[in-house]
Amino acid sequence: MTKLAARAQKIADELFRIYPQPECALTHEDAFQLAVATILSAQCTDERVNIVTPVLFKKYPTPKKLAAATQEDVEEIIKSTGFFRNKAKNILGFARAIVNDYGGVVPNELDELIKLPGIGRKTANVVLGTAFGIASGVVVDTHVTRLSNRMGFVDNEDAVKIERELMLLIPQERWINFSHAMIWHGRRVCNARKPNCAECTLAKLCPKVGVE
Q1: Using CA atoms, how far apart are residues 178 and 143, in angstroms rounded to an integer?
Q2: Is 89 a catalytic residue?
Q3: What is the pLDDT of residue 209?
Q4: Active site residue 158
Q5: N or C: which end of the chain has fewer CB within 10 A?
Q6: What is the pLDDT of residues 40-68, one digit of tens each?
Q7: Which one is catalytic: 10, 87, 115, 122?
């Protein structure tokens, strides 16, 4: 094991001590709702998405009903999440593909998920990990990107490259919860504007303490 991998293991251990049961912050009842919520979360806070999705799913609770919705109606419901026209197009395309190609059931395979409208690798990893318990990769969002660079795991802003590096540093059985824990830590302690290094129990393991 390399020194970096050993340090990554120690950081993961501490993250799991702080957040023993890290969960996805997006409110959902099934894989379909989680996928839609994750699409909506792009360039938007989870808090805002969690305000919008109950309205959306009350009106369109199933893939079949959402697939029959109009672009204009969906846009109106999700408008506050930003980039609403493209997001509406994506979630409608996703719902219609689920209905037409998968009998209304969200597939649980990475290669199948990433074929669907609005579903990139990050969203697929979220759905597989959270809804199905399948560790297909490491979810890399803005929090994981920021913390991975600050913690010295990577020196890169490319999500795919960051994921590949993290998959080498973190054992597969920890991928799902590691992502959730990093996201929670990014929200609560190691935030974007001013990381709270003085209160961070990971400070002794972090090479960027006091740099920013």
Answers
A1: 12
A2: no
A3: 64
A4: no
A5: N
A6: 999 999 999 999 999 999 999 999 999 99
A7: 122
Sequential DSSP letters for the chain: --HHHHHHHHHHHHHHHHSSS---SS--SSHHHHHHHHHHTTTS-HHHHHHHHHHHHHH--SHHHHHTS-HHHHHHHHGGGSSHHHHHHHHHHHHHHHHHHHTT-----HHHHTTSTT--HHHHHHIIIIIH----S----HHHHHHHHHTTS-S---HHHHHHHHHHHS-GGGHHHHHHHHHHHHHHTS-SSS--GGG-TTGGG-TTTTT-
Instruction: Supply the pLDDT for residue 101.
Output: 97
Q: Is 210's pLDDT higher than 60? A: no
Q: Whose structure tokens read 């318990």?
A: 133
The amino acid that residue 99 corresponds to is: V
Annotated catalytic residue, options 141, 161, 194, 208 = 141
User: Two tokens at 64?
Assistant: 């079949």
Can you give the pTM of this predicted structure? 0.92
Average pLDDT, the chain: 95
Cα three-residue angle 161-146-32, rounded to 5 degrees: 70
Condensed to tens digits (0 to 9), the pLDDT of residues 90-126 reads 999 999 999 999 999 999 999 999 999 999 999 999 9
